[in-house]
Amino acid sequence: MSDLAPLLVALPVFGSVVALLAGLARDRVGWAVAVLTLVVQTAVAGTLMADVLGSEAIRYVVGGFTVPIGIELVVDGLSATIALLVAVVSLGVLAYARRAGPRSNAFYVIYLLLVAGLSGMSITGDIFNMYVFLEITGLTAYALVASGDGGRSAIAGLKYLLVGTVGASLFLLGIGFAYIATGTLNMGDLATQLAEVGYGSPLVLAAFGLLVVGLFVKIAVFPLHTWQPAAYAGAPDSVSAFISALVSTVAAYALIRIVFTVFGTEFLAATPLASTVLAAGAVVSIVVGSLLAVSQSELKRMLAYSSVSQFGLIVGAVAVGNVVALTGAAIHLVGHAIMKGGLFLAVGLVNDVTGARTVDEYAGLAKRSPVGAAAFSVLAVAMVGVPPAVGFVGKWYIALGAVEAGAWPLVVVIFASTLLTLAYFARVVERIYFRDSTETSGLAPTATDGGEDDAPEPVVSVGMRATVVAAAVVAVALGAVAAGYGDLLEPTIEGLLS
Amino acid sequence: MTEIISLRPLLAVLVSAVAVAPILASRGRPNLREAWTILAAVTKFGLVASMVPAVLAGDVYVTDLGAFVPGVNFALEADALGLLFGLLASLLWVVTSFYSMGYMRGLDEDHQTRYFASFAGSVSAAIGIAFAGNLLVLFVFYELLTVATYPLVTHDQTTEARAAGRKYLTYTFGGGVAVLAGTVLVYVLAGTTTFTPGGIADLATTDPTLASAAFGLLILGFGVKAALMPLHSWLPDAMVAPTPVSGLLHAVAVVKSGVFGIARVTLDVFGPDAVADLGLGIALAFVAAATLLISSVIALRQDNLKRRLAFSTVSQLSYIVLGVAVGVSVAPDRAAAYALAGGLLHIPAHAFMKLTLFFCAGAIHVETHTDDISDMAGIGRRMPLTMTAFGVASLGMAGIPLIAGFVSKYFILVGTVSSGQLLFTGALLISGVLNIAYFWPVVYTAFFESPDDGNSKPLLESPFGGDRDVATDGGHEAEHGEHGHGDGWTTAGWRGGESTWLMVAPILFAAAGSVVLGIVPDAAVFLQIVRAVVEGVTGVVL
Amino acid sequence: MTGLEALADRLYYLAAFLLLGIGTYTLIGSQNLVKKVIGMNVFQTGIFLFFIAAAFITGASPPLLTAPAPYVSPLPHVLILTAIVVGVSLTAVALGLIVRIYDEYGTLNEETLREVQADE
């Protein structure tokens, strides 16, 4: 079974090449190739997940070079979860993107490469390899963000590229320090070697600081989030959904790996400053992200700041660093991906139906786009953390973990985050249902760029509606199975923390 | 006590939630839509009522759906206390459903489908609260109740309604956060949140400081919906909702869910002993006593009938909290049992009376578009049955014998006197006087004044001389002005000509309920349930 | 070891960090998008040199089989080869985007672009 692991990376790369070549011969073949690839990808990820949940991790050595020299792929419960999430979400977004576009072959080529990068980050056991996948993810994400029409998305893409590259470079620098200190790049090996070097060593501390800050940029923790609102708002709707659901999520997963697999709980115990920095990042992100979200008028920017706030919760769980909190982080990563991706898709759907993009234009939306409005509201309520939706379960675990650890300031902020989240979602939901539209006729669809090429407005397809509704249903339904999943994940997390 | 594994609690919760779908689906056919509501309401009541005999015999119905989060199962449990609330809410939902039809059609309201769907959802959540088997499940339904009632508060879609809705969400979700925080603390301290008669073992002893914090958070959280001062201010604002909502939800289901939560926390989570040990019961009683006095005073000054009723609700809810708080903060003897029984019995007693009052206010609004007391002079002639019911219920509120309010208040009084808490006795008596002071003017105005001299006693808050252009319902005034403010009310007979029977019958039913509870409390099943609860907690047989 | 010696010993690191500083400054301080990209390149180059310097062992020969042992560590060289490839692709994407932006707005000044965007 361990031979399946490299397929997670190889499949999308292969699919991407096929899409590229087939695109030379025929137009519009990209979508079919992508779907085919991702269906297989989902099956592979699902099989791996079934194999490793609750049992031993799968290890695969690439190219026959022995560890620690060679590159190792490690699939445990956590990485399998993320890999499956990546596969499922990317497949779901495809159903939406078929009609909503972008429809060029190049889009699907890059799309599959991004899936490869994300899957690679999820399963690699080598820190430099992680950097390479981080950059593949970054490069393709920049390109996708810029794939929208017009200058706005290009500027957003460039801004994302500049900030993202600095983040990745800092990550690389951190790898350099860790390498100088230990002479190894394998995560498992690093863990033992770092302990031998001593956690007080300046090299080790610098490595930790740089790796974490680099990932903070990628996760978009305040104040390193500056690329994110522009990128999410400037990208085409399908891309915003995809990126918001997965890119920061996988970066947050990488943070968990770096902090616990590479450095470990003993490092955190020996270096109180490390936990403090993480906790401070979490608190600031949760609070400031929400406050900024409240002040946004454009829906997609609001959702972007909401991500800043929600990932604060995850970072908070990492700062707490016990079994319960990390289980919560895993659940919230999955839950947030579904909810946020769904929200972006719902916003896209609404935009295609009515042209509404700002909070004020959502007034009376329930009449104009009932499906989009209902899905948005359900997902918003789930995100606020109303039980039994998955948003609540993740928060419950994280809060419980924080209380067990006695991290009181964090506890207060985690509970307050419910109200903060409510603050920016309630005003939208209120407008959707309890305010009449100011204009009698539907708004003219406004292209993001001021529209020099007026392509015929894509009609909303069944696939688009179905994806949005499915996201809402899954967000609620996952809440019921989250506890069972948490139990299965426990051995993995315990292994991570020992 | 035996546990009966049964799906009945679950079904009782789900019936109305399931009904939301057909209600939404039959949006184009009002009669079919309302038929679904009635069907769901009657089925629900039947299911809940079917559990009464066994529960009175000491059994508990349990539905366990397995783990929700580790260590906490999604368990529903119909015990005596839960059944008290569940039976009340489901019975009054039947009544309110009929009344809603009369009210909503009488006013030709928009968004009636949304209204009936949300109503069904709210009642589901309320029954979920009643039958929750542990604190976390209770929290789940507590939050869902907030979500389901929000559309009802904001129903009118006016600026005022939206502001009230926002306030409602902020307050109740804030309370929800406190409940969640308290639940987490309880779980961390005790390793479980399951309701245990007499309290979860070791909860208070492990870490008294944290336990006190947990208790404080839980009371704070439930106190929001129980409208304990200073957390009450959402309730008067929420009166912009249609009157059946104010009646069933903001006098019965929602606010009682807060009170019920407080009762659960004190009786089944911490338990009387622990609450007494931590010294928190008396503190709670003081808050309740202060609330019932202050809000009674504020009620005196409200000219808008529904707002006056709202402050009356704030006050009456604190009777319940006071009864429970006194009941758990003194030694578990007969005195405690009396106070507790009084507090719990006031849940149904107040529900019947306040529902009557709100139904009357709604009927007046539908028929005459009058909302302010100063405009109601002589309205007794126009709506004799309604105003008589109103009079009966107000007398009950004030604690006049033969009506429900007397029995419960008598129990609380006996409890406070015999446990030596004379301060609270005093507060209760003063509040009783205030109750008369703010209800009597309404009855007096309605029956013994005529519109001509109606303006002679302008209230401080009311527009001078009852200038109707500034009245809150100025919009309606123009079209319905000919209803006879100028020439006096048209006289309606005593046989229901004053309104549709869809509204009059529920009013009479609710009023009759308050009288039955007052005259033959032993025959009414609620007192028997209360006895079962009290016996379970204190061991005293009343 | 005197301070001067310590400095001389770490001269390569110093140079690498100077490049990091210069790169960061250009990236943040410059208004011109192309210059920002150049700053990014300088920044990355600093990191590359940092890795190469880390691999150096006094008296060792390059990691070639024809050269006599001891060798300097070959691994960082390999890593940096990969990183350079990544860096080149990033530069290519960035310049591609800049061309698009210039076509669209006719300017590469960040401040001007912000104003133009605000007007949209």
Automatic annotation (TrEMBL), chain A:
GO terms for molecular function: NADH dehydrogenase (ubiquinone) activity. It comes from the Archaea. GO terms for cellular component: plasma membrane. GO terms for biological process: ATP synthesis coupled electron transport. InterPro entries: CPA3_Na-H_Antiporter_D, NADH_UbQ_OxRdtase, ND/Mrp_TM. Keywords: Cell membrane, Membrane, Transmembrane, Transmembrane helix. It is found in: Cell membrane. The keyword Cytoplasm does not apply. The keyword DNA-binding does not apply. Residues 125-421 form the NADH:quinone oxidoreductase/Mrp antiporter transmembrane domain. It is a multi-pass membrane protein. The chain crosses the membrane at residues 29-50, 80-97, 106-124, 130-148, 160-182, 202-227, 239-260, 272-295, 302-324, 330-350, 371-394, 406-426, 466-486. Pfam families: Proton_antipo_M. Its main location: membrane. PANTHER family: NA(+)_H(+) ANTIPORTER SUBUNIT D1, NADH DEHYDROGENASE. This is Monovalent cation/H+ antiporter subunit D family protein. It comes from Halosegnis rubeus.
UniProtKB/TrEMBL annotation, chain B:
The chain crosses the membrane at residues 35-62, 74-95, 115-142, 168-190, 210-228, 279-300, 309-331, 385-407, 427-447, 501-520. Residues 470-490 are annotated as: Disordered. Keywords: Cell membrane, Membrane, Oxidoreductase, Transmembrane, Transmembrane helix. Its main location: membrane. Residues 470-486 have a biased composition (Basic and acidic residues). Pfam families: Proton_antipo_M. The keyword Metal-binding does not apply. The keyword Oxidoreductase applies. This is Monovalent cation/H+ antiporter subunit D family protein. One of its GO terms (molecular function) is oxidoreductase activity. It is found in: Cell membrane. It is a multi-pass membrane protein. GO terms for cellular component: plasma membrane. Residues 132-433 form the NADH:quinone oxidoreductase/Mrp antiporter transmembrane domain.
Automatic annotation (TrEMBL), chain C:
The keyword Transmembrane helix applies. Keywords: Membrane, Transmembrane, Transmembrane helix. It comes from the Archaea. InterPro entries: CPA3_antiporter_subunitC (IPR050601), NUOK/Mnh_C1-like (IPR039428). Its main location: membrane. The chain crosses the membrane at residues 12-34, 46-65, 77-99. GO terms for cellular component: membrane. It is a multi-pass membrane protein. NCBIfam families: PRK07375.1-6. This is Cation:proton antiporter.
